[in-house]
Amino acid sequence: MKIGVVKEIKVHEYRVALTPAGVQELKRDGHDVIFEAGAGIGSGLDDSAYLAAGAESRTDAAAVFAEAEMIVKVKEPQPVEVAMMREGQIMFTYLHLAADEKLTKGLMASGGHCFSYETLEVNGGLPLLEPMSEVAGRLAIQAGAKFLEKPTGGTGVLLGGVPGVRPARVVVIGGGTVGINAARMAAGLGADVVILDVNLERMRYLDEILPPNCTTVFSTGLALREELKEADLLVGAVLVPGAAAPKLVREDDLVSMKAGSVIVDVAIDQGGCVETARATTHDEPIYIIDDVVHYCVANMPGAVPRTSTYALTNATLSWMRLLANKGHKQAVLESGPMAKAANVIGGKLCYGAVAEAFGMDCSAPQDLVS
Questions:
Q1: Which helix (DSSP H) or strand (DSSP E) does residue 241 occupy?
Q2: Boundaries of every domain in the chain
């Protein structure tokens, strides 16, 4: 199979979907790899490294899309990329379709076979989402600490405080991978951390492993509203795999928050868990509503590509190889995780949560490839 790697074009997205080491593995399996010139530059990987690994260079994305049987990416395809897809072409990337009806319909119209990193499921876990959730959870605290500073519109509170002065109160909604990494980072900086979840077993686990300055609270509407009053930094870390995030913080709730407090909604890829959240970019990362600073960058890990590219490709490479070695039909029929990763097959929607979000018809991926 001919596999294509393109340069990411989302604003300030510097990750790349395949490293030179990955090229070597795919070549060893008998595949050809072509890449868009400059695809890895943002992650510190120059073209010579890809050429030395056995890949071939192309001048632009159009040439890669025209030749490749499978396109591997990091972020969801942008409109110009959707327009370059062709019938029968495979795409493997983050898609987050439940938050974007236009993209969903565009991929269906292409007639391609679209597999999503974030819905690939193994024993109830999401192994291709987890490494980026780890990065995003930690970055949420870095960003929150920055925008708590007075010159950026924040309250002017130092996250960890100093002797004799209270630290900031950090409230984390969700005790999954994003939440636990955010809580650890905030606690390590000395903040007073509260983490809310609805899974008692998960909270017992969190209570055992998190440091003493972290408190677990069972999440109810009342409990969340009470915590909002005290929060200097709120981190939205709620995930429903493949589906739109539930709106747990309503616009009316903002009036109870401190002026200059900060919300970092990491769930924004799936529409956000804060009603007032809308996707922002690294160019313009924040906006303010009711005196509350909102940070809702939809590709947070793209800011640290030398870490996140390797973290991502360590997780994705074995699944790329499976998809390339088997082809989309056999991969779906023989691998339960790859069947879960299938969102669109031959122009037909085949992931239930996305279909439910937009009221569309949904087919089983196995039926579509049989």
A1: none
A2: 2-126+306-369, 130-303
269 is catalytic: yes
Identify the active-site residue in 232, 253, 269, 294.
Answer: 269
Domains 2-126+306-369 and 130-303 share a fold: yes
161: alpha, beta or left, given left = phi > 0 and alpha = psi -120 to 50? left
Q: Which of 235, 222, 243 is nearest to 141 (CA)?
A: 235
Return the axis-axis angle of helices 130-147 and 305-334, rounded to nearest 10°: 150
Whether residue 123 contacts residue 98, with contact meaning beta carbons closer than 8 Å, is answered with no
The percent of residues above 90 in pLDDT, for the chain, comes to: 95
pLDDT at res. 46: 96
The whole-model pTM stands at: 0.89
Q: Tell me which of 96, 113, 294, 328 is the catalytic residue.
A: 96
Reported as a single tens digit per residue, the pLDDT across 303-326 is: 999 999 999 999 999 999 999 999
> Does 47 qualify as catalytic in the annotation?
no
pLDDT of residue 75: 95
CATH of domain 2-126+306-369: 3.40.50.720
Side-chain half-sphere of 92: how many Cα atoms within 13 Å?
31
40 contact partners, CB below 8 Å, separation of at least 6: 16, 19, 20, 46, 47, 49, 50, 309
* Residue 370: per-residue pLDDT: 85
Which residue numbers in the chain have pLDDT < 70? none
CATH architecture, domain 130-303: 3-Layer(aba) Sandwich (3.40)
